[in-house]
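Internal tracking record. Fields below are filled automatically when a chain is submitted to the structure queue. Please do not edit lines marked as system-generated. If the sequence contains nonstandard residues, flag them in the REMARKS field before resubmitting.
Queue: standard
Priority: normal
Entity type: single polypeptide chain
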Amino acid sequence: MPKIGMEEIRRRQLIEATIASIHAVGFSESSVSRIAAQAGVSAGIVHHYFEDKGELLEATLRQLGANLSASVVRRLRAAKSPIHRLMAVVDGNLGPELFTPEAVSAWLAFWSQVPTSPRLARIQKIIIERLHSNLVHALRPFVAAGEVQGVARDLACLIDGIWLRAALRPERPDGPDARRAAVDFIKHRLGAKVGALPWER
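SYSTEM-GENERATED OUTPUT FOLLOWS
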């Protein structure tokens, strides 16, 4: 395996600190100095690796998207059947390694900034398109060609809504409950075509 250089390690550390800061004090209060303190470094270190707060926030959203993509890809590689591939996409978006209080807070904060930030909007557009593409591909064995785009869109809206609801509730995100909601949608829309859905991750 290739070695990870100090620059990459430091950048990841600062991105993780950004996520933690957003969860703790919100997007607007997550200043460079606060993020630096969260990471245990000086503000100068932050500016050494990122030009400004905007670049750090952009890198953080990219990392959240990369984490999401890796979660889906890992599950798809292990999938043995069409229904397992569909559930791999669902589980990849709701997996316990992603569906955490910190990540939920960060996603909600970034979504709120997308309408006024072209840089963040471009990244979010890629993330949305990737989810839609993955769902369309996974749904094709079960849905007619003329309907698959709509079903994929609706399932993506459900997944996004689950994340939004989790961000607005004081309780810790409930991964199993979120998965049940997705499974219920799939059963309702696809019916007997999907057979018995795999519950084990």
